Amino acid sequence: MTTLYLVRHGETIDNANRIMQGQTQGELNATGIEQARRLADEMSGVHIDAFVSSDLKRAYDTCKIIAGPHGKEVAVTPLLRERDWGGFTGRYIPDLKNEPWPDDIESVEALKERAARFIDYLKASYPGKVVLAVGHGIINKAVQSVLFGKDMKDIPPMRNTEVRKLTL
């Protein structure tokens, strides 16, 4: 079995300003950098065989900080990217509450299919290993939804740099 420490990236400038980031790169703010450093300290004594990140900057930068004490490189995959929010990307989240969803938002089915491919990728690439992977709020929910066979709404949201230990 593969052990997965699933992490959400540190706080970004857009998180703090309540902007829908979607698949934009994003930039950690000072709080996000500090969150990643604290998590790096907490995880420094934990055996981790591999570090994997979404290919979006905010997740990669978080993972690179956490991997630092372990002296390991970070593998990247687009499978762990955040949900594509289409026309909602870059918009102020509170303004979206009563708006109709644009047709270009990634469907839940497509998101969960990508999450399943991520799980398969980890099992095939890191069998029996311990992996720390940094993703995003919604894709991390999708990974857990697929793994536990639950609806996305039944998976609690993850805070920035929260870690969940999962067995694949």
Mean pLDDT: 97
User: What is the number of helices?
Assistant: 5
Major sheet attributes: 5 strands, mixed
Poorly predicted ranges? none
Give the neighbour order of strands across the main sheet.
3-2-4-1-5
Shape: globular
Helix content: 25-40%
Share of β-strand residues? 15-25%
Structural class: alpha/beta
- Over the alpha carbons, how many angstroms does the gyration radius reach? 15 Å
Order of helices and strands: EHHEHEHEHE
- β-strand number: 5
Distance from N terminus to C terminus (CA atoms, Å) equals 6 Å
Task: Please render the helix and strand layout as text.
Elements: E1 3-8, H1 13-16, H2 30-43, E2 50-54, H3 57-67, E3 74-77, H4 108-125, E4 130-135, H5 137-148, E5 163-167
Parallel strand pairs: 1-4, 2-3, 2-4
Antiparallel strand pairs: 1-5
Helix pairs in contact: 2-3, 4-5
